[in-house]
Amino acid sequence: MAYRKTIFFLGLVLALGPTLVRYYLTWPLPGSQDLDSIGWAYGLGKVAPVTEVLGFLVALVGLVAVVRSRKSWKTLLWVGLICLVALGLHRVTVKYSAPAVFEPFELVEFARGTSEALPPETLVMGVASGGQAKAYPLRLLAYHHRLEDELDGEAIWVTYCSMCRTGKIFRPVVDDMQLDFDLVGAVRYNSIYRDRQTGSYWYQANGRGAAGPLEGKVLPELRADQMTLENWLLLHPESDVLQPDPAAADGYTMFRFDTIDEVRSDPEKPPEWQWVVGVAHDGEARGYPWSMLASRRLIQDQLGDLPLAIQLHSDGISQRAWDRRLDGRVLDLELDSETGNLVDSETGSAFGFDGVATDGELAGLSLRPLPASVEFRHSFESFSGAEIVEPEA
């Protein structure tokens, strides 16, 4: 009898063990996201489909042997309960996996302007290229996490991680190979994806292959702005705006995704969960606390050979980063508290939120916008290796 039980239990362990461990490593369960476990998750993802089938077959053999050896109702009850628990655990890993909870778009539609569902204050991630502009509301991306789309005739991959608040848009191409991605889960508080072409795992925060054949490869990233829909449409009046998917109405209210990121200063949160604005340049990166930007509304700094400025709009949520080099010199900018414009202290030229000088000696010239991420501090530190500027006391 003992060996029959052993076969039965070994089969269940083989069937469920790799799947349950992988589920733990890729889902926000206590302690799981503090582990640098993407290699383990990748390896388990490769073997789990095989061990599930093999393990359940072994368990079935043991089950038949146990039932045949002792046909009492107690044995049948014991076996039935064990099987129900095993099937229940397996069901949990399927029903509550990241791909099942955060479903992709079924209907992708765009429209112009604001609406009742997407009012002017809606936060969006906007991107423009070749005369075409598109805006992706964060309240939609926070649920779906990803969208395969096109911009100016080329494929783009729009992503957003609701755990670390990283919004990134990539060209899904590596070594002339276009990739398609499926959501796997999360590791180190960041969404991870599996490409269908090679099975490699990717971190969303930096677009880097983290395990598999394409480990170390990096997806080209497009510069995107995060701001209110109202401000985006002022910059790009003809922009297409992604619309809610009717099939995902319940998902948009999950975890209050419909109000996500409307508040970016929360002194009650620990430092690692505070917002930063991150800028990377020529192998260096630096993060600036949102609390610093909120109090100053303009930050000027030097990152390597890059003189930069980060500007906060008067709405307290829209921000842009600029290269301060223009017309052969480095501008010393000030913020006009009444108009919200940036003003060059030497020439008096004023720059609107579009970066274009409207008057003065530099009228008609434009500041160059810089890529700037807006995310939680722990994410920026983990995936950029950056330093964080500490506000003066």
Describe, in plain words, how this protein is organized in 3D.
By secondary structure, this protein is of the alpha+beta class. 39% of the residues are buried. Helices cover 30% and strands 30% of the residues. A hairpin with a 4-residue loop joins strand 11 and strand 12 (208-211). The strands form eight sheets. The protein has a five-stranded mixed β-sheet with strand order 1-15-3-2-14. Helix 1 packs antiparallel against helix 2 and helix 1 packs parallel to helix 3 (73-95). The protein has three domains: 2-96; 110-259, no CATH class; 271-388, Rieske Iron-sulfur Protein (3-layer Sandwich), CATH 2.102.10. The chain contains nine helices and 28 strands.
Number of E-type strands:
28
**N-end to C-end Cα span:** 71 Å
Strand fraction equals 25-35%
Global Rg: 25 Å
Broad shape: elongated
Return the domain count: 3
Largest beta-sheet characterization? 5 strands, mixed
> How do the strands line up in the largest sheet?
1-15-3-2-14
What's the helical proportion of residues? 25-40%
Low-confidence stretches: none
Count every helix, treating DSSP H or I runs of 4 or more residues as helices: 9
SS class: alpha+beta
If you average the pLDDT, what whole number results? 91
Give the helices and strands, then pairings:
Layout: H1 2-25, H2 38-69, H3 73-95, H4 98-101, E1 110-111, E2 123-129, E3 132-137, H5 138-144, E4 146-151, E5 154-161, E6 166-170, E7 173-174, E8 177-178, E9 181-187, E10 190-195, E11 201-203, E12 208-211, E13 221-222, E14 225-228, H6 229-235, E15 240-242, H7 249-253, E16 275-281, E17 284-289, H8 290-296, E18 298-303, E19 306-312, E20 319-323, E21 325-326, E22 329-330, E23 333-335, E24 342-344, E25 350-351, E26 368-370, E27 373-376, H9 377-384, E28 387-388
Parallel strand pairs: 3-15, 17-28
Antiparallel strand pairs: 1-15, 2-3, 2-14, 4-5, 5-6, 6-13, 7-8, 9-10, 10-11, 11-12, 16-17, 16-27, 18-19, 19-20, 20-26, 21-22, 23-24, 24-25
Helix pairs in contact: 1-2, 1-3
